[in-house]
């Protein structure tokens, strides 16, 4: 338990990062040329609304004071009102959270399900045809643009074979599962390319490790060695890897949401950019950043849980 | 005097390197010779020839404006290759400079820079890119600026960790003891050795940059129509997947091919120079 | 003489390109006997033992010929599952660096319990209890608590004890100890060796001790086999080998031990390096470094011939040395 001790103090260490995130987001939006009030409210806004927002965000004050207003509002859950949707940004993000979380989680699970057996196969048959084929396929996979891959999958499975819906999220849980197959697969395929390569490398490193030789010298079967020794030891680098790639994963999901018209945070972001709905852009960017920080924190916890040598 | 700190190179060039280099070479040739090779003008509309499937005259078919997809793909090579290379150069230069200085000088400066790195890394790459481009407005120039502002981070970290390792190595201590200035040690001794992993990384980073550039253009924020760029072409083609699958398929394949070439090159270089991932 | 526990006969291992890694390796071991396998790095001592366990480090290496009889069974004729039943159960191996040879993410107790469950079909709780008992028997204090610890939480000596417990769990008749004390503190070395010898005394375990330390050999072994460049160059009872070595390499090794030098004089060493399998010299493999080499040494490879009771040596001039029985000046090396 003492290994988790420092980890529990981690949130304090994350505070500067979170502050930094808020600063960057604040600076980003304030760098938009033009009157900040108009920028935030859009071109069609009443003088009363403008006056109100000036007061709420302190837009007449010096910049650093504006930042404090911003933080104050943030902590109160006030991120501004969306021009397009005419609701507050925070509840808007809350609504859109579902599809994005579904997409990200689903892709991770699917990617691991694909990458694990492939990496194991490649590691065991090192140097052989299977290994080289898997390496080749995963290298190709790295270069598959998610937006194009999604469309290809739609062409093949939706248009040609009519197996899956072309777009949308569905209403019931079952429908959603059905709608999310292709999107999750799209992101998962590209992610599994990365995962396969690294898992394979991690497994190869473990397979030639001394303790595996010692395990063989004890007469343990190859299958037991793989499941009870190689796999747990390959887990830690995998968790790290997933954490590192989470940013990429989220980026991919933004694009995939657009391809499949999923009502998630990514689509919110893109629409916000096109409609100059800057409060939305600001809110979503911050939400994504905080989510990334949180996920990395979780990854650290998982790392401590799976490797007894680590005490963070 | 600076010694190479990496494993001895095998005498044979790895196959990966050769294949990768070949693909890139073909791409560069296509890009340079586009005006001569492309059978049709990539931008001119031809309303009598719209949505024609692949044929001998139009190997990749035509799009909804009657433009030859094959020619557009060839012309697109220029843009996407450019996206990849320029989109890497600026982050590479900025990140290397920051990483080298940060690692060498250490102390408060180092902590500050690494804090900034942590914060930038907290944002998902594409999200930050999009947010910056939202402010700068769409266009290829915004893309390069946004890449420079966001992409330097990986290079800074890489260079910094290499610098930290090399800072305490024997040949650097020897150089300092011979009275060489900090600047000289940094640039003539540490940098050449520290660069190797960065260069290998840069090759694979090009893949990421090309994909990002294409994605941003797909979304409509990057390269603008009617320029022939593979990302935009995929986006335009998405509206016709039931009637004209070729419009969106072939540009995507081109992206895959170019990315594949750079990946192979990166892997091959890594193998050749003895750098491990 | 009763049937030896282990009889290795003409064992040879080659690479994929047919380069000999070890050749004509012949030795035997009785119950409760300690055989010292001595030589420089790369001489083939570890490789021979891995070969007899059929645990060659790479797929490109193969056992070319030979026989390994262990407790009446011809090991080279067994298939992999049969071999697995013997490894860990009837014979075990402990390694030089216990830190890297223990699974870092599995507790020590679990690793021991694992072998018990695999080889003896023990139930989970019974296996755990016995694992604790094993730790106690190798001298690890507070075994109930330590069984839950991980490798990195043990000190060097304790780790080696844990490794021995792991190997001992199923009660093997043969333990191969590959440089078990090289990576340990001098004080701890003695403890580990004491532990191994106790095992020999109390359980009748036979031990092959791989080492380059002749002092250790002098203390612990019954028989000694000296290896050079993949071949055994001399073999016999410890007393004979150390007192009257017949092979120049053995004599040089003895001379290089700090204990045999005079205080104040330079420590002698054997000039040159052992040859690689790609460049074995013609004739006797030791000839380039041998001060007593003659023409025949450079042309014909000597065979392992018997000169006294159980002492055999592979040297063209061994006979003369054996007959002379003179303690020759062993300083053939630069001093």
Report on this model:
The complex is a heterotrimer of chains A (about 300), B (about 280) and C (about 325). Chain A is mainly α and about 300 residues long. Chain A is about 75% helix and about 0% strand. In chain A, helix 2 (about 10-30) runs antiparallel to helix 13. Chain B has helices spanning about 15-35, 70-105, 105-120, 125-135, 140-165, 170-175, 180-220, 230-240, 245-275. The longest helix of chain B is centred in the C-terminal third of the chain and has 38 residues, at about 180-220. The model of chain C is unreliable at about 330-335 (pLDDT under 50). In chain C, about 35% of the residues lie in helices and about 20% in strands. Chains in contact: A-B, A-C. The interface between A and B is large, with 52 and 52 residues.
Beta fraction of chain B: under 5%
Specify the overall morphology of chain B: elongated
The profile of the biggest β sheet of chain B is:
none
Name the shape of chain A in a single word. globular
In brief:
The complex is a heterotrimer of chains A (312), B (277) and C (335). Chain A has helices spanning 5-8, 10-30, 36-41, 47-56, 63-75, 89-124, 129-142, 146-160, 173-207, 210-217, 222-260, 265-274, 278-306.
Strand and helix map with partners:
The complex is a heterotrimer of chains A (312), B (277) and C (335).
Chain A: H1 5-8, H2 10-30, H3 36-41, H4 47-56, H5 63-75, H6 89-124, H7 129-142, H8 146-160, H9 173-207, H10 210-217, H11 222-260, H12 265-274, H13 278-306
Chain B: H1 15-37, H2 69-105, H3 107-122, H4 125-136, H5 140-167, H6 170-177, H7 182-219, H8 230-238, H9 246-273
Chain C: E1 6-14, E2 20-29, E3 34-38, H1 45-52, E4 62-70, E5 73-74, H2 80-86, E6 91-94, H3 108-120, H4 124-137, H5 143-146, H6 156-168, E7 174-178, H7 186-203, E8 206-211, H8 214-220, E9 223-228, E10 231-237, H9 238-243, H10 248-256, H11 295-299, E11 305-308, E12 311-313, H12 318-324
Parallel strand pairs in C: 3-8, 3-9, 6-7, 7-8
Antiparallel strand pairs in C: 1-2, 1-4, 4-5, 9-10, 10-12, 11-12
Helix pairs in contact in C: 3-4, 3-6, 4-6, 6-7
